[in-house]
Amino acid sequence: RRGYQLVFTPHVARLDLWKTSGHLDFYGANMFAPIRVEDAEYQLKPMNCPGHILIYKDRRRSYRELPLRLAEFGTVYRYERSGVMHGLLRVRGFTQDDAHIFCTPDQIESEVEACVDFAKLVLTTFGFERYQVELSARDPNQPKDYAGTLADWQRAEAALENTMRRMQIPFERREGEAVFYGPKIDVKLIDAIGRPWQLTTVQFDFMLPARFGLQYVGPDGHPHQPLMVHRALLGSVERFFGVLIEHYAGAFPVWLSPVQAVVLPVSEKHQNYARQVADALRAGGVRVELDDRQEKLNARIRDAQLQKVPFMLVVGDREAQGGGVAVRRRDTGDAGFRPLADFLRDVRELIDRRVAKW
Ligand SMILES: [Zn+2]
């Protein structure tokens, strides 16, 4: 719907590619050592950008094809010292929901705007309501750390600022936080207990298109250089899940819960009915488990409670006869008898509408 093409690119590429891209010079400290194969050196990819650039470069492009938006769930590998790795939050291999948009200079602001708008939709869907936006500019005292001319940077930073103003999004400007190839917008979301987490990033890039000699044929029939936008909404999928777990303290809304309901037969003779209930819910698209272990009912309820399963469905004689379940909610406990069809409808509603609080 937002006009992306999904692509996949290789995890290793010739070292030369990373020389051309500038990663070797500007990003080398974050990369693993090259791998030697048959007299050539290969590099595990720290970013997906060069792969997408090669797809762009595969043939002549016309202005009519722009903006060209390539998206990939791309796994990248970055060297981190062993001491700094931390759970899901900081790892050496992770998957980015990465995309690169190739566009003309007059498309840049609307593309940046569309990315920020997309990010807002994704973050609010996952239940994050508060966020802060930062515009990372270059450090004017360290021009050597950045590629491109001062004029390029001023134009790029102005484009990002204009977009934020037009969208009426308050932002903070941070000098010296830009990446080497261009300024960026970072969205930090604020979790349930007020901690900021850096996830979404939208980066402006005038440098890689120049280094790779990218072109498109304009309406005038002459070659022009496209601009590039790098964007990741969740950032790293692994890190995003780490943040999500922290935000909800493990108690996910129903639509996000790995197990949405667990069926608990009161005793062995209710196992058949319990299985029917579980099958019916599974067929209705609910992630359900049957816990018929030979443990006391209270112990099984406690386990499900510790797993933060939203619904525990206790079934005994009364439920089997009435064609329903005794509903127990993770948060408020006993919620009484509910006919099975009605319970299924209630849960489907919570899932389909992605209800955050229920
Ligand atoms: Zn990129």
Overall description:
The two termini are 29 Å apart. Helix 4 crosses helix 5. This protein has eleven helices and 18 strands. The strands form four sheets. An eight-stranded mixed β-sheet has the order 1-5-6-13-10-9-7-8. Strands 15-14-16-17-18 form a five-stranded mixed β-sheet, with helices on both faces. Strands 2-4-3 form a three-stranded antiparallel β-sheet. Helix content is 32%, strand content 29%. The mean pLDDT is 92. The protein has two domains: 244 residues, 2-Layer Sandwich (BirA Bifunctional Protein, domain 2); 99 residues, Anticodon-binding domain (Rossmann fold, 3-Layer(aba) Sandwich). The chain has 358 residues and is an alpha+beta fold.
Number of strands: 18
- List all distinct small molecules, including ions and cofactors, that are bound in this structure: zinc ion
CATH superfamily label of the largest domain = Bira Bifunctional Protein, Domain 2
Distance between the termini: 29 Å
- The CATH topology of the largest domain: BirA Bifunctional Protein, domain 2
The CATH architecture classification of the largest domain is: 2-Layer Sandwich
The helical percent reads: 25-40%
Read across the widest sheet, the strand sequence of neighbours is 1-5-6-13-10-9-7-8
Number of helices: 11
Q: What's the mean pLDDT score?
A: 92
Percent strand equals: 25-35%
Assign an overall shape: elongated
Structural classification: alpha+beta
Give unreliable regions as ranges. Answer: none
Kindly provide the name of the CATH class of the largest domain.
Alpha Beta
- What's the order of the H and E elements? EEHHEEHEEHEHEEEHEEEHEHEHEHEEH
Main β-sheet, in a few words? 8 strands, mixed
State the domain count.
2
Indicate the radius of gyration in whole angstroms.
26 Å
